[in-house]
Amino acid sequence: MLFDYRRIDPSFIQQSVDQAIAFGDKTIADLVSSSGPRTWSDTMLGLERVARRMAEMNGEALFPAEVAIEEDVRNVARAQQERVGKWQVELAFRDDLYAAFKAFAGGDEAAALHDEAKRLVDFWARDFRDAGHELEPAARAELKRVPLDNRCRSVRRRQLPHGRAPCPRG
After folding, report:
1. What is the pTM of this model?
2. Which of 66, 118, 121, 141 has a C-alpha 20 to 30 A away from that of 105?
3. What are the start-end ranges of the E strands in the chain?
4. DSSP secondary structure of the chain
5. How many other C-beta atoms are found inside a 10 Å radius of the C-beta of residue 28?
6. Model confidence over 126-145: pLDDT tens digits?
7. Which residue from 170, 168, 164, 166 is spatially nearest to 55, judged by alpha carbons?
8. Superfamily assignment of 9-155 in CATH?
9. Are 104 and 110 in contact (CB under 8 A)?
C-alpha cells in the first residue's frame, strides 16, 4: 500500500519521529540488556530493526522537508531531520552498545558471515571505531567534548544501503 502524503502536517511529522525514536530507544535498551552469548539475532538484527524503522519514518515523515509546498511542514521536517540525525550519530558513541556489538563481532558467528551480513558488521565496526571506541580514554574523552554537529562529520556518516541516515545539515 502506498503512503498517503496528503496527510502530512507538522503534528504527523513530530509524532512519527517521536514514535520512531521511542522504538529505537526500546530496541537498543533490549539489545544491550540481553545476557548470554551474543548472536546475530540479539545484536545485529536489533540494529537492523532500528535502521529499518528509521528509514521508513524518514521516507514518510522527513521526506517533505525537501518537497512540501507548505513552509511550516518543511520547517518542522528539517528540524526533525536534525533531531533524528543527532540521535543516530549518538548510537555510535554509546559504550553499552559498543560492548554488545564487540561481543558479537568477536565471536564465531560473526567470523563465519559473508557478503551483506559481513558488510553490515564492517559498517558498524567502522562507525564505532570512528566514534573513538578504540582510542585511549583521554583521546576518547576529547572526542566526546567535540560538539555533536562536528562529531557527526568526524564519524563520516553518509546514506548507506542498509538505511542509516546521513548527518544532520550543519
Report:
1. 0.82
2. 141
3. none
4. ----GGG--HHHHHHHHHHHHHHHHHHHHHHHH--SS--IIIIIHHHHHHHHHHHHHIIIIITHHHH-SSHHHHHHHHHHHHHHHHHHHHHHH-HHHHHHHHHHHTSHHHHT--HHHHHHHHHHHHHHHHTTTTS-HHHHHHHHHS-HHHHHHHHT----TT----PPP-
5. 19
6. 989 988 898 888 888 888 77
7. 164
8. Endopeptidase. Chain P; domain 1 (1.20.1050.40)
9. yes
Q: pLDDT, tens digit, for every residue of 65-83?
A: 888 888 999 999 999 999 9
Q: What grid cell was written down for 53? A: 524503522
Delimit the domains of the chain by residue range. Answer: 9-155
Report the Cα–Cα distance between both ends of the chain, in Å, rounded: 35
Query: Do residues 84 and 62 lie in contact, with contact meaning Cβ atoms separated by under 8 Å?
Result: yes
